[in-house]
């Protein structure tokens, strides 16, 4: 297909033209694309419809293929059928050239467009109010506008509103005054009990209230008081009562006096604020609050500083020192007895391994000091020989057991037989002369150069064949 034919086939890319080199205007004025050869229109310009594109879009529609819906034009009138603009303005609550944008609910008026080319201040702009959609001219002297490009700008928000689309609510400004309509700041300060530039935060500062949270609460031990009246409603830790003048009751301390004291020395109460035991802890406890029993193995008493009386005791009573749990390897009332034979470790519950000649292991850590029985290895002699090893200390190598299986860990025997070419209980002997293969039952050829002299595994003749015979097995004539 040549270039010209291709052009006709695809259609002219230039809107409104057809023919050779797309040089002929389409016959219908409002046609956007026509047939590249005949000139018949098949797509209209935006805003038109019909066979020859002579009809404007139906009422309330406009634009490309007349598919766009008009906005909220004034009095329900239809929009411009080409670009959708509302030539007579918008219905109440809408703005913009197409009247498709809702006016913000809390704004008083909207600048629609400047009406003069003289942009010195003051200049005239068209104003539309939110509640009535009335448009009027009004001078502007205090609005910072890039007026050459401006289409919409909010002049001011309603009282008690500010910010983006006038949606933000003012805080508690002094004397109920409204805030700055742009950033919400309270230029004359905050009402009593509030603080911050927008006066939206109640006083959180412990012990203060009033204007900008600057007045100390009346009660010295008050943590939070009413942001306006100063009446206390929550005490500092360690205090209670209507005016927070009372310390916590004995054996209690802290936030709302809810914490319970620990085991202070001689049953004394703790500090009512932080719970510390100023005179130390009772026997068997330690820490600033004396709430932790002695966890240190082998100690008890004041601040866990006294060793348990029994040498082999791991934990003794925090007050009396009586042993209730022995160190690993010991047992009995005072932990003087080692574990029974063949037992060791924590509470003498672990069983010894296979120590040499059936001897017992070390009662503390379970090691076999004289080594392991045949077929075992490791400090505790609990692991059988493996990895093709057997015997004392697992230092002997297994023979050729069938399928590479592990031999018996003590004596090295191959319980399932040998690999081809091997024999014996341990499969560590090759076949007898003249035999080969599985169980050494196959006989070597008599036609080997040396009669019956073959390889014990394959059966191949070792030195070749006698005259007149050939092949690996020397059985081919």
List descriptors.
single chain, 477 residues, mainly beta, 1 helix, 2% helix, 25% strand, disordered N terminus
Summarize the structure.
With 477 residues, the protein is mostly beta strands.
Secondary structure topology:
Elements: H1 3-10, E1 17-18, E2 24-25, E3 31-34, E4 41-44, E5 48-49, E6 55-56, E7 61-62, E8 68-69, E9 94-95, E10 101-102, E11 107-114, E12 123-129, E13 135-140, E14 153-157, E15 161-162, E16 168-169, E17 194-195, E18 201-202, E19 208-209, E20 215-216, E21 222-225, E22 232-235, E23 239-240, E24 246-247, E25 252-253, E26 259-260, E27 285-286, E28 292-293, E29 299-300, E30 306-307, E31 313-316, E32 323-326, E33 330-331, E34 337-338, E35 343-344, E36 350-351, E37 376-377, E38 383-384, E39 389-390, E40 396-397, E41 422-423, E42 429-430, E43 435-436, E44 442-443
Antiparallel strand pairs: 1-2, 3-4, 5-6, 7-8, 9-10, 11-12, 11-14, 12-13, 15-16, 17-18, 19-20, 21-22, 23-24, 25-26, 27-28, 29-30, 31-32, 33-34, 35-36, 37-38, 39-40, 41-42, 43-44
Polypeptide structure, described:
The chain has a domain at 3-56. 2% of the residues lie in helices and 25% in strands. It is built from one helix and 44 strands. The chain is flat, with a radius of gyration of 52 Å.
Average pLDDT number: 83
Poorly predicted runs of 5 or more residues: 1-10, 112-125, 136-154
Radius of gyration: 52 Å
**Alpha-beta classification:** mainly beta
The biggest beta sheet reads: 4 strands, antiparallel
State the oligomer. Answer: single chain
Amino-to-carboxy terminus distance: 79 Å
Number of strands: 44
Strands in their spatial order, largest beta sheet: 13-12-11-14
Number of helices: 1
Question: What general form does the structure show?
Answer: flat
Strand residue content: 15-25%
Secondary structure: helix percent: under 10%
């Amino acid at each position: 297909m040549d270039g010209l034919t291709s052009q006709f086939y695809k259609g002219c890319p230039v809107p409104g033209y057809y023919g050779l080199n797309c040089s002929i205007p389409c016959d219908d004025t409002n046609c956007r694309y026509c047939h590249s050869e005949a000139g018949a229109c098949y797509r209209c310009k935006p805003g038109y419809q019909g066979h020859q594109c002579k009809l404007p879009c139906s009422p309330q529609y406009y634009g490309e293929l007349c598919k766009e819906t008009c906005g909220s034009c004034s009095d329900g009138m239809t929009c411009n059928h080409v670009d959708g603009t509302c030539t007579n303005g918008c219905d109440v609550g809408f703005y913009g050239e197409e009247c498709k944008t809702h006016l913000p609910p809390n704004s008083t008026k909207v600048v629609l467009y400047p009406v003069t080319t003289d942009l010195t201040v003051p200049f005239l702009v068209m104003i539309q109010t939110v509640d009535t959609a009335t448009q009027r001219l009004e001078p502007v002297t205090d609005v910072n506008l890039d007026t050459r490009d401006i289409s919409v700008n909010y002049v001011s928000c309603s009282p008690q509103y500010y910010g983006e689309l006038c949606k933000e609510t003012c805080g508690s400004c002094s004397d109920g005054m409204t805030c700055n309509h742009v950033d919400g700041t309270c230029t004359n300060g905050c009402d009593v009990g509030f603080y911050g530039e927008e006066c939206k935060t109640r006083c959180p500062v412990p012990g203060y209230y009033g204007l900008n949270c600057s007045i100390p609460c009346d009660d010295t031990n008050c943590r939070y008081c009413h942001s306006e009246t100063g009446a206390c409603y929550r005490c500092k830790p360690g205090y209670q009562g209507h005016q927070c003048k009372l310390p916590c009751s004995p054996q209690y301390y802290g936030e709302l006096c809810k914490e319970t004291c620990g085991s202070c020395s001689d049953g004394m109460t703790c500090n009512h604020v932080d719970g510390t035991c100023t005179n130390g802890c009772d026997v068997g406890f330690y820490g600033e609050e004396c709430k932790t029993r002695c966890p240190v193995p082998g100690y008890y008493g004041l601040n866990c500083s006294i060793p348990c009386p029994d040498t082999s005791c791991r934990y003794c009573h925090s007050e009396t020192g009586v042993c209730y749990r022995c160190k690993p390897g010991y047992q009995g009332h005072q932990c003087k007895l080692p574990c029974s034979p063949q037992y060791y470790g924590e509470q003498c519950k672990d069983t010894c391994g296979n120590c040499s000649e059936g001897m017992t292991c070390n009662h503390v850590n379970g090691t076999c000091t004289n080594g392991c029985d045949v077929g075992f290895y490791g400090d505790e002699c609990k692991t059988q020989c493996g990895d093709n090893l057997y015997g004392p200390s697992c230092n002997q190598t297994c023979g050729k057991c069938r399928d590479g299986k592990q031999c018996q860990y003590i004596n090295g025997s191959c319980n399932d037989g040998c690999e081809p070419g091997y024999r014996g209980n341990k499969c560590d002997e090759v076949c007898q002369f003249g035999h080969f293969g599985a169980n050494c039952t196959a006989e070597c050829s008599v036609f080997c150069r040396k009669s019956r002299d073959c390889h014990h595994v394959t059966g191949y003749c070792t030195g070749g064949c006698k005259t007149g015979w050939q092949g690996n097995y020397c059985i081919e004539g």
